[in-house]
Specification:
mainly beta, 5-stranded antiparallel sheet, 5-stranded mixed beta barrel, 3 helices, 19 strands
């Protein structure tokens, strides 16, 4: 299943734990009732004060039985923005606000539907990996009859493979049933894939790899940029079709233990440089120890280039 979801994402960063305000794209309410903001929102990690505001803030009057109504994101943003701002000031949390393009207020019923469930899962998961191609396998839904409405409780984190998510189901007799949905998420990203076999210590050339979408759900290594691969040596023998992860490519040593290197220090319009002895091998970006051969004092610096260190 491939669904495109238009999302408006507001993130307010602060020092505390994260909270999530997710506006549901489709809700079922009683005909002619006053629709409160809490009925439209899945709120997680909020303070009691913010939850009380959600429960008491009216948004609209529900349509007649059998009819639907749509709410524009602008009206929801106007109502939710002060809550987000107050939550940040009150508790110092980071608040994630997820809004769909439109919110449908329905008076009939909403069956447990795999397409709609996938839409809501992607609403939360896609922003967590914007360059990922997300796919769903083996979605399992609870076998409950007479469903009027349902609401997912989705954590703001990307699952690694299999997942189970709680769902609150409202039956036509108004009874609330708590159940679970489960499945497997496949997160694919573009990674460099070898077009040919390579021997250990062989250098990678531009025509040795292509970029393909591969499942990275369980990967623990990074994806290198092209400039971090071309001209570099591979650590071990690799076959055609293998993914060229960041750790498979050796970083070139900019400094070797025992060699004389130039260390610089300065700010503004002045700079001082001297020759010192490297105490270890290092690549660009490493922090290393250096020895002044005249005084035998140990200095610390960061490697900034081939044979070059900046004093720290």
């Amino acid at each position: 299943m491939k669904l495109l979801i238009g999302l408006l994402i507001l993130q307010v960063n602060a020092a505390g734990a994260e909270a999530l305000l997710r506006v549901r794209p489709h809700v079922v309410v009683s005909p002619g009732s006053d629709v409160k903001l809490m009925q439209l929102v899945d709120a997680q990690g909020l303070s009691k004060e913010s939850e009380n505001i959600l429960q008491t803030t009216p948004m609209t009057k529900a349509p007649a039985y059998g009819e639907r109504q749509e709410l524009a994101p602008a009206s929801l943003m106007e109502a939710l923005r002060p809550i987000v701002q107050a939550e940040r000031a009150r508790s110092g949390t980071s608040v994630h606000l997820l809004l769909p393009k439109n919110v449908v207020i329905d008076t009939m019923k909403r069956e447990l539907d795999s397409e709609m469930i996938w839409t809501e899962l992607k609403q939360v998961w896609q922003p967590l990996c914007s360059d990922c191609k997300l796919e769903l396998e083996g979605l399992s839904l609870p076998a409950i009859q007479g469903v009027r409405d349902w609401s997912l409780r989705i954590k703001s984190e990307l699952p690694r493979g299999s997942f189970s998510i709680p769902v609150s189901i409202t039956r036509e007799d108004t009874a609330i049933v708590n159940a679970w949905i489960s499945g497997r998420l496949i997160a694919k990203r573009k990674v460099p894939v070898l077009k040919r076999s390579m021997a250990a210590n062989e250098r990678v050339q531009a025509n040795d790899f292509i970029w393909e979408h591969k499942d990275v759900s369980f990967s623990t290594d990074g994806i290198p940029d092209a400039e971090d691969m071309i001209g570099r040596q591979v650590r071990q023998a690799m076959r055609a079709g293998d993914v060229l992860w960041a750790n498979m490519v050796m970083k070139e040593k900019a400094i070797r233990r025992g060699e004389m290197v130039q260390v610089t220090s300065g700010a503004g319009g002045w700079e001082v440089s001297m020759m010192v002895v490297a105490q270890q091998d290092a690549v660009i970006g490493d922090i290393i120890n250096l020895k002044n051969p005249k005084t035998n004092n140990i200095l610390v610096g960061q490697v900034i280039g081939l044979g070059e260190v900046e004093l720290r």
